[in-house]
């Protein structure tokens, strides 16, 4: 499986380490990296040599570089810029899922994928239990879904906090507009469940925490569920839970597996 990567930051470098250096996913390789921004011309050659990928500063050349799949680990803006053009030709894994909060954008990407015979993968990222949320909602009987995200102060606010502070309470669509680097999970949860307007989100900065704590609650005709993750932040980006990068690896691995669990 030849992968093209967009976004060689915290998660992108982790993927390059695990896939290209450690050979963690046999028969997978990140062969191409896209960055059209001027500043990339300085930083990419060293990384390209270190991890053995070809660097592209134009989308068309990137897409015709022999890749089977594109992995996005950059930001919401890059998804808006590239996703539709990529899905016309290649499967795409998006981790900046907040880009799909707008129903029109999401539907347009789905219809592009359908027309083109490509697939859009949205890993669970920093949360889990999406299999249960999808199952509970399959007959339309999922009534309520909510997410409470607590993070250490430094992931959410500038300056020191002395006590816990509720920064936001509202819908998932409002949450991602206010916290584009902290509420991607709210959109993934919404897409798996009852949508971005009905999914309720609370975001709390807590100076006593060392983990990113996400609690998902749901109820419907199936019963009730509640689960909490206490995620270690990534060493290179305190906003991003380390589990997110692991969920990309896991999704990539499952593309070649014969057994589908969940
Ligand atoms: N779905 C989920 O559960 C989660 C999603 N995320 C999201 O995942 C994304 C990546 O997270 P991190 O790796 O921690 O962020 P990061 O900020 O460490 O890395 C992003 C990289 O993308 C690069 N980049 C930005 N614009 C680009 C462009 N147009 N073309 C190519 N490269 C570009 C940046 O220079 C940076 O190196 C972020 O959008 C973050 O909000 C983070 C946590 C959970
Ligand atoms: O990594 C996390 O804990 C969640 C996060 O930042 C996001 O969903 O954007």
Walk me through this protein's architecture.
The protein is α/β, with parallel strands linked by helices and 262 residues long. The protein folds into 2 domains: 2-122, NAD(P)-binding Rossmann-like Domain (Rossmann fold), CATH 3.40.50; 130-237, Dihydrodipicolinate Reductase, domain 2. It has 10 helices and 13 strands. The two termini are 23 Å apart. The longest helix has 14 residues, at 103-116. Helix 4 runs parallel beside helix 5 (103-116) and helix 8 (172-178) runs antiparallel to helix 9 (184-192). The strands form 3 sheets. A 6-stranded parallel sheet has the order 3-2-1-4-5-6, sandwiched between helices. A 5-stranded mixed sheet has the order 8-9-7-10-11. Strands 12-13 form a two-stranded antiparallel ribbon. It binds 1,4-dihydronicotinamide adenine dinucleotide and oxaloacetate ion. The site of 1,4-dihydronicotinamide adenine dinucleotide (NAI) has 27 residues, from helix 1, helix 9 and strand 13. Pathway: Cofactor biosynthesis; NAD(+) biosynthesis; iminoaspartate from L-aspartate (dehydrogenase route): step 1/1. Belongs to the L-aspartate dehydrogenase family. It catalyses: L-aspartate + NADP(+) + H2O = oxaloacetate + NH4(+) + NADPH + H(+); L-aspartate + NAD(+) + H2O = oxaloacetate + NH4(+) + NADH + H(+).
